[in-house]
Amino acid sequence: MQIYLPIAEISVNIFLILGLGGGVGFLSGLFGVGGGFLITPLLIFYGIPPAVSVATAANQIVASSVSGVFAHWKRGNVDLKMGLVLLAGGIVGSTVGVWVFAWLRSLGQIDLVISLCYVIFLGIIGGMMLFEATRAIFRTRRRGGQIRRSKKHQHSFIHGLPLKMRFYRSGLYISALLPLAVGFFVGMLTALMGVGGGFVMVPAMIYLLGMPTGVVIGTSLFQIIFVTANVTFLQSVQTQTVDVALAILLLIGGVIGAQFGAQFGSRLKAEHLRALLGLLVLSVCLKLLFDLVITPSDLYSVMPGDL
Amino acid sequence: MTVPLAIRVAFMIALALPLLSIGAGPKKASADPLVVDLSNHLVAITTGFTGTNVLLFGAVEEEGDVVVTVRGPDQDMVVRKKERKVGIWVNSESARYKNVPAYYASASNRPMDIIASPEVLLDYRIGLQNQRFIGESKLSDDDQKVYREALVRNMQGAGLFGERPAKISFLSNQLFRTDIHFPANTPTGTYTINVYLIRDGRVASVKTTPLVVSKTGISAEVYEFAHRYSALYGIIAVIIAVVAGWIASVVFRKR
């Protein structure tokens, strides 16, 4: 069954889009990532214009994050104070990002930048997660189920930064500049790549901020809601590329999938989860890298000139 | 066998009258050598739109060849060339073209080169090769040719430029018909359809008829709203997403 998308201006198969949203929603609930890093490339592969894909994915991530955050909120897995500091950085970062997006589009380089961003970030983070998680899995096995504890009181330059704040829920006393910078950076990625940024945010919270794994996913989802909402609004105003019809189809599939994902995820060990996410991230990265490197079937591309 | 003469004469005249009037037709100044119409002057892009065909039909007064061209609204197009840099394919040089029809298709009853000389086709801008795109770039003439070919090739790939002229079929010596196909990605706007009657290699008559492609129904209203009240649209999009996410979590919590 086909449906004509009003903003993307093409007709798509309803069930394919619903399935896409559902599959990505499941992963989103499982890993606590928005799933945008999967949904945006998949929409582009399907033939939705990249600008519409990026903006609409942001809208869809709002829904999947809202549905995901309630479960974490109930279990007390949201560090509200940390979330708000990250969010402050995220709002500024995503606003700058929407502006950079429009500028790159006028240069005709947006597709390349989107792909390169994906390859670089997914490659680094996927590789790191997979490596770390595999090591953790093997260590746990060797020590007969003993779980490795992270050292909280390692001192580095990070602890010398000013504006220190106490984050009780995370048990941290660190400079507010650090989560602000993380939020800003991830906010920019949200605007440029149509991602919630969970795949950057989650590892940054664990490895850079040193937050306990338990509150990471809930807090990440909490701030992603507001950053993606900001991007949805700004893209609507500046580029009119948010397709609500497409977003509704994706989020119907997405919110249902996310619930199953969250239930399923609570039964898995954290390091197994990280290893799986690492694998997934790496495979998307390799696919995109492959597309950049192989000789395209047509060296010339055509776009309407008003873009 | 004893029919009165007067009745027989009257009968013959009655039979002959219609024939006479037909014979007299072409001599009248008001007679139209070419009559054309469309099955539909509006292509409505609704929510279920997956492409459509419009039937063009018409009649010629005397035998001749018929050529149809369909031209969508003009738009600017940018053609970009990819180059391999550090192993990665990157957009490098580009050329901007003005006056590129968003859609172009043609149809004829016989191959175009048999119907008319290249000069005549050029004069009337019939056929893809005779469409003039005004380029804005610093490219050499050779490059211009390559870029233009790339533009046409890409538009053909998207189904917006006809690969080759479609077939016009004559149902009799006078009646003809052809189907014009509009794909799912047909751009909106006002299209111009020209029908040429060509006799002995010269254009004897031209008929122009417009065709409007526009969005109707919900998709049109959404598009209109997104462009006119974009801030409100953005807020609504966010609200829909938040409500949908909340509903989902409530529904699943009860399980």
Automatic annotation (TrEMBL), chain A:
The chain crosses the membrane at residues 12-45, 51-71, 83-104, 110-133, 172-193, 205-229, 241-261, 273-294. Pfam families: TauE. It comes from the Bacteria. It is a multi-pass membrane protein. The keyword Chloroplast does not apply. The keyword Lipoprotein does not apply. Keywords: Cell membrane, Membrane, Transmembrane, Transmembrane helix. GO terms for cellular component: plasma membrane. It is found in: Cell membrane; Membrane. Belongs to the 4-toluene sulfonate uptake permease (TSUP) (TC 2.A.102) family. This is Probable membrane transporter protein. It comes from Thalassospira tepidiphila MCCC 1A03514.
UniProtKB/TrEMBL annotation, chain B:
The chain crosses the membrane at residues 231-252. It comes from the Bacteria. Keywords: Membrane, Transmembrane, Transmembrane helix. This is Transmembrane protein. It comes from Thalassospira tepidiphila MCCC 1A03514.
